[in-house]
Design goal:
24% helix; 172 residues; three-stranded antiparallel beta sheet; single chain
């Protein structure tokens, strides 16, 4: 890799890491832990690997298009965005900066993701209990309103103390 390519990689990585998440635009894809890699192949094409929060994430096409558009707008003629589903995304990949941005925007942030074992994932039809505090007043007196919020990675809660509704980013 030439020095010019090495500088290009840093610039391409910086650009990719600045792309906003389409569903939670207070976060970059880097904050969310979705960016898995940025490389420049021997032919000079930028190859970006991303891991969506869910394999069927409806924002995946928008993420890809936003990355491609930003890189081509900054002079990268050839861009390829690959989706990597292994390992599966985990809410543990959200950066500390990302968690702070979520709290500042009124979201309840995820606790540690559940431990994963090897082999098949058991299907359970009941929700695992969570200790969720209100991001506005800090009260632990909260009720689950819906396991599915505006996006698959969020659950909707209501605080019994201040009566405010809020979203909780799920532990995945």
């Amino acid at each position: 890799m030439t020095v010019e390519n090495a500088r290009g990689l840093v610039t391409a990585r910086t650009l990719v890491e600045s792309v906003l998440d389409p569903e939670m635009p207070m976060l970059t894809l880097a904050d969310l832990g979705v960016v898995r890699g940025v490389e420049i192949d021997p032919d000079g094409a930028v190859v970006v690997a991303i891991t969506p929060t869910y394999s069927g994430c409806p924002a995946l096409a928008t993420m890809r298009a936003d990355i491609e558009h930003l890189l081509t707008r900054h002079g990268y003629a050839r861009v390829r965005v690959d989706t990597s589903l292994t390992p599966a995304w985990s809410s543990d990949w959200i950066s500390e900066s990302g968690a702070r941005k979520l709290r500042d925007a009124g979201y309840s942030t995820p606790g540690p993701a559940p431990a994963r074992s090897t082999g098949p994932v058991p299907l359970t039809l009941i929700t695992r209990p969570r200790a969720v505090s209100c991001p506005r007043c800090g009260s632990p007196a909260t009720d689950l309103v819906s396991e599915f919020g505006a996006t698959l990675c969020k659950a909707h809660y209501r605080c019994r103390a201040c009566l405010e509704p809020f979203d909780h980013v799920k532990e995945i």
